[in-house]
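re: ur question from earlier - yeah i can do the single chain one, its not a big deal. heres the input i used so u can compare w yours
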Amino acid sequence: MGFRLFIFDLDGVIYRGEEAMPYAAETVHRLRQQGKMVRFLTNNSALTREAYVRRLTGMGIPCKEEDFMTSAYATALYLQSQGASAKRVFIVGEEGIHEELRRIGMQVVTDPEEEGADYVVAGIDRDFTYDKLRRAHYAIQHGALFIATNRDATYPAAGGRIVPGGGAIVAAIQTCTGVEPLVIGKPNTYSMELLLRRCGVSADEAVLVGDRLDTDVLVGKRAGLHTVLVLTGVTDAEALRSAPAEMLPERVIHNLAEL
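and the output i got, formated as tokens:
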């Protein structure tokens, strides 16, 4: 069967930090020239979809907002589907989460003790502080539902570095509250299923290309897609050898030129 849709993770696959990965632009261009649909599915909730458009376009990959399914956007769509559009939310996160939740009409609060909160939504926050942790703890202890955009413990950054991800912040909130969050991003299949429906493509016609076993490959296999692991991000050959069967991809490539 011919593949109609190629879904790429971003961090460690298309770029690291501000640096485009080798062959990323050429690979996307080649697939589009072949008539394939190309979309991007990321657990990184830091940026707005508009910011991702600017970043990739600047790397030679022209795209539109509808080409992206971020964990922040998927979280907003989930909350909207639950009738939460007018509810109060305390956010531990960056502009990507703030923008998506504002777009659906949620009331963003900064002090749950004074304003109350119906939800706490947490993701990557590079300005995370003890005070934010304390406020999230208060809100959850007083009945706010705890939602996490993702649980990635780390992500690949520029210069070959691996740095703490949103999952580390989510874990801090979970540790002090004792409350398990509802996680919207990969490996939950919610965002993947949304993307497939929007593209009008069945899972067996789609290929997921990612760099993480515990999110990218796992969500692809759970959702029934074909899976490709590229060794330009957080996963190395040793991690691949010790991975459980449910996280083993169909194919492993060293860079996108091999796709």
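The chain has a mean pLDDT of 97. not sure if urs matches, ping me
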